[in-house]
Design brief:
The protein is mostly beta strands. It is built from 3 helices and 23 strands.
């Protein structure tokens, strides 16, 4: 019994210490074309980026007498071509990310990528290498005429969105396996909806996705507290004007909402136009009650003192925080009486526009 036990464990040990050797990575025209290319920025908490595409494989890849055997033999410099087969149970995905200057972004790992699948199969990588992500399946899910690839990546890891990808498989040659990647990769064009060429061997950076910042301004009603008419007249006469507090000003702040990934490091011009028009000197908006007029200016203050501004002057904003989805200012209103100012109920409507300047 002791002898049998020793032989059994020795055989098991031999199986463990003789894994299939992984050899070099080769490039081959593995893919005919790409379709269904899409990059979408999701409106979730993390502004995740969803990427998907379909890779159409060339014909006759998995046949025992494949027409590709001879080219594969030449590619890997093998003299035993008839033993070369492309595994129907393995697939590879190679992802490439780039910085704004076109250099490779090497800090993105598999930890930043979620919901990754190829033909519905999850990857089986134990490491973080995104340029050789492997998929294994024994259910013929990978023995198909195409590979459907999809994944999500956190926007926090993507300064710009510049992504290239290619797919491939595994060549079996005796006790060795070779990674075989398509020499024809895919990128997504400036719109994120185009299937553009990407050359993984040169790894030249593809065009960055142009992201619409989707600026949106919050609607608010700025209701002034009641004003003492005599105090307004006195403060206008001495040139200082009258600062009038708003009802619930913090809940009615002026806010710009935007898609952070679409914000460029350029100056943004903020303009305000009003329903009642400007004063004759064009330095004030006008509150009106029929023929009666009160001039006013708006002071918008934020936590960044350098970003405070006054209206009706155009404001040139040099900074938009890319780590948040909005920037807000608290309004303060300064009133100036005119010759027609009297008791009444005054109002005006302001419309804001924001425009990035090239």
């Amino acid at each position: 019994m002791n002898v049998k036990t020793k032989i059994y464990f020795m055989g098991l040990l031999l199986l463990i210490i003789q894994p299939i050797a992984m050899a070099n990575t080769y490039f081959y025209p593995y893919i005919k074309s790409y379709s269904n290319c899409s990059i979408t920025i999701l409106d979730d908490e993390d502004n995740s980026v969803e990427v998907s595409f379909r890779a159409h494989l060339v014909d006759d890849l998995f046949s025992d007498k494949s027409s590709h055997i001879e080219p594969w033999e030449q590619l890997i410099n093998s003299s035993n071509g008839e033993s070369i087969t492309l595994s129907p149970d393995h697939a590879i995905l190679s992802l490439h990310f780039y910085k704004a200057d076109g250099s490779p972004e090497l800090n993105i790992t598999l930890n930043a990528i979620s919901e990754l699948s190829l033909n519905g199969v999850s990857h089986n990588n134990s490491g973080n290498n995104i340029q050789e992500i492997t998929f294994n399946s024994g259910a013929n899910a990978l023995k198909n005429t195409y590979y459907d690839v999809s994944f999500k990546v956190s926007s926090n890891t993507l300064p710009p969105i510049r992504i290239g990808a290619t797919v491939g498989g595994v060549l079996n040659i005796d006790q060795q396996q070779h990674s075989l990647l398509s020499s024809k990769g895919v990128s997504f064009g400036s719109t994120g909806k185009q299937c553009e060429n990407f050359e993984p061997q040169t790894a030249a950076a593809p065009e960055a996705i142009k992201v619409d910042p989707k600026f949106r301004l919050s609607s608010a009603i700025w209701k002034l507290k009641s004003v003492d008419l005599d105090l307004l007249l006195d403060n206008t006469e001495n040139g200082s004007g009258l600062n009038v507090p708003l009802d619930n000003s913090e809940a009615n702040r002026f806010c710009i909402h935007y898609q952070p990934m679409g914000v460029k490091r350029v100056i943004h011009r903020i303009q305000a136009n009003n329903l009642n028009g400007l004063s004759k000197d064009r330095n004030h908006f006008q509150l009106k009650d029929k023929e009666k007029v009160i001039n006013y200016q708006v002071i918008l203050r934020t936590e960044y003192s350098s970003s405070d501004f006054f209206l009706p002057e155009d404001y040139y904003l040099t900074y938009l925080d890319k780590d948040v989805k909005k920037m807000c200012w608290t309004p303060k209103i300064q009133l100036f009486s005119t010759e027609t100012t009297d008791k009444g109920s005054y109002s005006d409507t302001l419309n804001f526009t924001i425009m990035p300047l090239a």
